[in-house]
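DM from R.C. (forwarded with permission)

"hey, sorry to bug you on a friday — could you get me a structure for this? deadline for the figure draft is monday and I only need the backbone to look sensible"
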Amino acid sequence: MEEFVFQYAGRLNVKLQKKYLKQALKLFGSNAFQGYDNLRYEFIESIHEMITRDVADEVIAASDKLVKNADFWDNGDRKTQHIILRIMIAVQTGQIGLAKEIATANMDIDDIRQQWVSFLESQENFDEAEKILLEAPRNNAWQKERWDDSLTGLYVMSDQKAKVIPLLRKRVLSHQTNAYELYKNIMIDDNLWEKIYPNFLKEMEKKLTRYEFGDILVTEKEYSKLLDQLKKYNSAPMIRKYLPELYPHRKKEVAALYYDKVVVPESKKDSANAPRQLRKDLDDFFEVSGDGKLVQRWIKQLQLQLADKPEFLEFLSLATRNIEMSKKDY
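My reply, with the result:
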């Protein structure tokens, strides 16, 4: 439909335009899009080039009717899409003042704010777009990341490097580690990365969670530092998480750490799930390392230590069978 409108809308006379628009509005308001209002509004937006001032009210009225008929489960989505449609039609028909008025009155809705910022960016009105993004509510981590991400995009689009660099640095240190790669690449382009990296790494260690920092260390292939982190926290879940990335680079040290801090503690637990988890830990290590001989030595030690615990011995036998059935060359 969008391609058809793009190719032929300008060639149709007023009578034919109204005819096709009437058919489109009938489909727009029908049950064909029941449960898929996002597609309903994508459909009507695809014919925006056919919407002129003399038919704009008719389109808005059709959408308004849908809003009034929305059910309890709508959660206001139709209302938001209706407002976005009104803004789009106002822009399409050259009523920029009206579009701004509608957007401003509904700026408390995040999607409306984003829609208006996108329009301002398309007009290269970066100052006003920046003001709106800076004023956006940041009441939770999700909102903060959304608007910081939009602000980053605006600064990149408008080539405001002096603003984007400190913003990206702040975002990374505020747990928005998805901004790390962009920050790094910009600093590399400015030949500053090697200079700032050592101190920045120390700052991240202080400010980020152990897992956020661990993921950065994996990205940077800082395996010695990652091993130090695992030893520092002595956390079985953390050791399990980073085993696949770290083992190939520090085999002996990681194997010893895994046995002492993951396998042995699990074998001493009294919970009903402990035998099954112990077997999983042994299987996981074997899958990563391929070292069946080492795992079998662990199993023999555990069998001696757990000789009076048949519930553990059963799962240890299963772990042994997994190694014997494997085709891995160890």
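R.C.: lifesaver. Residues 141-157 form the longest helix (17 residues).
me: no worries. The mean pLDDT is 90.
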